[in-house]
Amino acid sequence: MALKTFNFKLLMLLSIFIVFTACSDDDDGMVDPTPPIEENSILDIISGEDDLSTLVTVASGFPDVVDALNNPDAELTLFAPTNDAFTDFLELYPNLTNDQIEEILTFHVLASIEMAADLSDGQTLATLQGENLIVSIDGASVMINDANVTEVDLEAVNGVIHKIDMVLVPSTVPTQTIAEIAVGNEDFSLLVEAVTRFDDLTAAISSRESQLTVFAPTNDAFQALLDSNDDWNSLDDISDDLLKDVLEFHVAAEVIASTDLSEGQEITMLNGAIATISLENGAMIENANISAADIFAVNGVVHVIDMVIIPHNP
Predict the structure, then answer these.
(1) Of residues 177, 183, 241, 166, the one with CA closest to residue 210
(2) In terms of Cα–Cα distance, which of 273, 266, 263, 286 is closest to 215?
(3) Residue pair 70/152 in contact by the 8 Å Cβ criterion
(4) pLDDT tens figures, 248-268
(5) pLDDT digits 0-9 by tens, 185-211
(6) Residue 16's pLDDT is what?
(7) CA distances from 193 to 78, 141, 222, 234, 300 (A)
(8) Is the CATH code 3.30.1330.10 the one for domain 178-305?
(9) Which fold has domain 42-164?
């Protein structure tokens, strides 16, 4: 019993000595070796990644996006395009509006935390933008839509970041040029045939840097034009000078959505002539009805019309 009592007292003395020593060490400025809890937000983390600097710069222009990525109470997943991804993307999309950029940014963010281990092949992920992303996994390869995941699980206090090699584009942002839209629509085959006779017009509607509005006549409209002259059996029967003048009278060097049109509005077309808008009996340009409006492209907008309009002298 005496031995047990002695051992107990010895242990008590050692405990008091250790506590006293620890307190003394704290007073001497000793650092607690316990690792700190992660306090950096997603925005903090990506701001410290050299290959995500373009993403940070782009996001900084949108307060709602910044607030979301910086909110310590949020639970988010960010698929973060690298600088190289943005370089390639901006070459293809040089004329994005602020609304489109914000939609693109929120298309990369999930309102849930999805670690790499949580992802599965065929999984759909709901984004803040409102559309879904699709996960594809093949062995060690992981893709989000068409983008490869290049680095995973950069953890933050409010979620996780996975780096990707491509900027993801939601369906609300146009991806085709006016030329691609026309070529892809069988009802514009005669328009395409006419335009491709002229390299400068073809280049204009093909360039992703252009900003154009095209009032696009359908095949029926072109057939009505051919039927109006007994000497015109095909577009080949129309002289280059006349055909180019007619085509340029259907193109404006600015983007004009249907909501921008007003009664009596005068639009200067590429050939220098003025086309007039009427809204009294439905939307019309000159004597042509606008049958479908606001087919947006990377480089402008297309409005479908039911008649080829003939230019006036400028």
Answers:
(1) 177
(2) 286
(3) no
(4) 999 999 999 999 999 999 999
(5) 999 999 999 999 999 999 999 999 999
(6) 37
(7) 45, 43, 11, 10, 20
(8) no
(9) FAS1 domain (2.30.180)
